[in-house]
Amino acid sequence: MRPVYMVSGGVSKFAKARPDVTFQPMVKEAYDYALKDLGLEHPRFVEIVDGSVASYFSDHFQRQLMSGIMVQDYLGLCPKPSHRVEGGGATGGLCFQEAWKSVASGLMDVCVAYGFETMSHVNTWKGNEFIALASDVSFDYPVGGFYSGYYAMMVVRHMQEFGTTVEQMAHISVKNHNNAFHNPYAQKRKLLTIEDVRRAPMVAWPLTRLDICVMSDGAAATILASEEGVNKLEKASGKRIKPAKIVGIGRGTDAMRMADRPHRQVLLLPHERVSDYRGLKYPGIHSFRAGRMASKLAYEMARIVNPIKELDFIELHDAYTSSEIQTYEDMGLCKYGEGGRWAEEGNPFLPNLDYGLALKKPGTLPVNPSGGLIACGHPVGATGLMQAVFALWQLQGSIKKHFGNDRLQVKGARRGAIHSHAGTGTYVTVSIMEKV
Amino acid sequence: MASAKRERPNRKLPNEEPVALPETDDGTILFNVPFPKDLAQLKAMAPIILKQPYRIDYIHSYGQDSPFFAGLANGKLLGTVCTKCGYKYATPKLHCMDCGSECDWFELPQVGAVHTFTVCYFGSEEFLKETPFVLILVEWPGVDTLFLSRLIGVDPLSPSLEWVGMKVRAKFRRLSKFKPTDVYFVPA
Fold it and tell me: What digits encode the pLDDT tens for the residues A251-272?
């Protein structure tokens, strides 16, 4: 396999609804932005690009099969190769990795990964029904299919097992909303307090409306290239590209039904020991084994031994405040069980922002500096690609250029991770990107 | 006059009438759609947004899991057990996730314990009218996996972590709907 670089990206402004356009022009907004940032126009770019991968989650939301090809033709990429990937909430992350494979394998020199979701076509509660169809329709969905309920059951067990508190979860909501306050692409830009989060309407105990991401319409596009691809693009534009190198990818899976998850031993990362977890039954429903597997594989490829010391930021899949805490542990930022405390101490906050909280260790490793899914929104097929775009801008040091302010720029960011996650931890991807 | 014509389908089209599809009054009808004289103004037009019905009846087979639902109709809660490694599934799987061998059916005890729970105050559209409802995962000693169900007989407005570990007893609907909700749990 050969080195792969991410060279550019674009994101549509995420919104509750985009009735002004159908999905194809929404993707084009992101695609055109990515091209413009490369200094290229479509006719020149299309001479170079070898193919694409399309990402969207739900045929139910879309009520249009083969939407991928409809984007491909709208963008003017026919007859170049393409396919659609789907893996629930991790669809975007999977798409990014499929584009990586296309380039790493030598099949393509330049590959576009684009994605979108249109979730506004049904009301919120029908939307929740559509999402819950991503649970076993014989045994789980009919009992009261509701994803917020599933994640609530997972975190209740985390609370029971490790003593995690609702206030610790609320810290994530405060952090991500306050970060997004400075991100013009975000759907929800709010300065919140812990009390605001806890006083919000209860959705599925103990998760309130402010512990949960919202549904969105949105699109994102990323462009990946080999060294040759980078040269071709630079030659075409006459401009130097500031790429990020994708140094590691990993994926993991787990059983669809939470009831089926095993209760055995922790899958250890290099900096952990068996003695760290005596008596802990793993993953149970308190942890995401797929997230741990994905992290382990990505770290191995990127030769990361201790992520907390070797990563400068992470954009991770915070569909719920609780799952952000659980993911800290899967990614080895702290030990299993310590995620709540790690959040409360301030470790995942940006060091330079004022959150109105007394934080003991602010900014150890900023997580979701963009505001994450909770505040940016979660147009499923676009989400994992949005993370890649924000990560590229962090590594380029170009947050100011793209956001209009540099409040969210992680100073001196050299290496970051993106993490995409599907329903209750069934598919998880982790990709590691480095400044070149 | 138009309908009178449709009653005579074999009638040859009269030369004096224009050839046209018959107009119908089903579906969405929008009268008097504004339209600018200058086509350059069309890009500023507000989007046309329609509500369209979308309903289907779907034929779902429980397949190899069917005996579970037959069990519920007979007041029995069935799990499966691996014929080779003995791994026990509280939610049936007919092949073992662990060793790949075939599983047999066995009857689960009707008293288990709450492994975890939540109270849903909102829900998917189908279940919105049932809120607030309590979801639980039930555990049994010596059984390797869990079972998702509803818990009734607790106050959904006062959830507490103390519910974890609570002994619960299975109850069965007298009139089976052949859904997993034919069984539910109450405090034992």
Answer: 999 999 999 999 999 999 999 9
pLDDT, tens only, A63-77: 999 999 999 999 999
Sheet strands (E) in A1-125: 4-11, 51-55, 82-85, 110-118
Contact A263 B144 (CB under 8 A): yes
Asked whether residue A56 is domain-assigned, the answer is yes
Distance between CA atoms of residues A227 and A298, nearest Å: 21
Chain A residue closest to B49 (CA)? A19
Q: Which residues of B touch A19 (CB under 8 A)?
A: 47, 49
In a domain, A147, yes or no: no
What total of structural domains would you count in chain A? Answer: 1
Query: Between chains, do B49 and A19 touch, taking CB under 8 Å as contact?
Result: yes
- Whether residue B10 has pLDDT greater than 70: no
pLDDT of residue A340: 98
CB contact under 8 A, B91 and A259: yes
Tell me which of B99, B122, B139, B158 to substitute to probe the interface with A (most A C-beta atoms closer than 10 Å): B122
Chain A residue closest in CA terms to B158? A205
Q: Is the pLDDT of residue B9 over 70?
A: no
3-state secondary structure of A264: strand
Residue A32 belongs to what domain range?
4-122+217-237
Q: Where are the domains of chain B?
A: 63-173+182-187
- Cα separation, A122 vs A220, whole angstroms: 22
Residue A41 falls inside a structural domain: yes
The pLDDT of A212-231, averaged and rounded, is: 97
Q: Which of A185-189, A290-294, B31-35, B166-170 has the lowest mean pLDDT?
A: B31-35
* Residue A192 within a domain: no
Facing A204 at nearest CB: one of B121, B126, B145:
B121
- pLDDT tens, residue by residue, B35-72: 999 999 999 999 999 888 888 899 999 999 999 999 99
Please tell me which residue of chain A has the smallest CA distance to B183: A143
pLDDT higher than 50, residue A398: yes
**Is B127 in contact with A156 (Cβ distance < 8 A)?**
no
Q: Are A144 and B123 a contacting pair at CB < 8 A?
A: yes
Residue B2: band (very low, low, confident or very high) from pLDDT cuts 50, 70, 90: very low
Which of B54, B62, B124 comes nearest A132 by C-beta?
B124
- Cα–Cα separations (whole angstroms), residue A407 to A12, A14, A381: 20, 20, 27
> Would residue B27 be called left, alpha or beta, if left means φ above 0 and alpha means ψ between -120 and 50 degrees?
left
Query: Please, which pLDDT band fits residue B27 given cuts at 50, 70 and 90?
Result: confident
Cβ-nearest to B135 among A21, A63, A143: A143
- DSSP alpha helix (H) spans, A133-274: 141-144, 147-162, 166-180, 194-199, 227-237
Q: Is the pLDDT of residue B14 over 70?
A: no
Partners of residue B125 in chain A, C-beta under 8 Å: 123, 125-126, 128-129
Q: What are the C-alpha distances in Å from A374 to residues A26, A215, A365, A368, B93?
A: 21, 10, 19, 10, 35
Q: Which CATH number do you get for residue A80?
A: 3.40.47.10
Residue B1 has pLDDT above 80, yes or no: no
Nearest C-alpha neighbor of B124 from the set A126, A362, A253, A195: A126
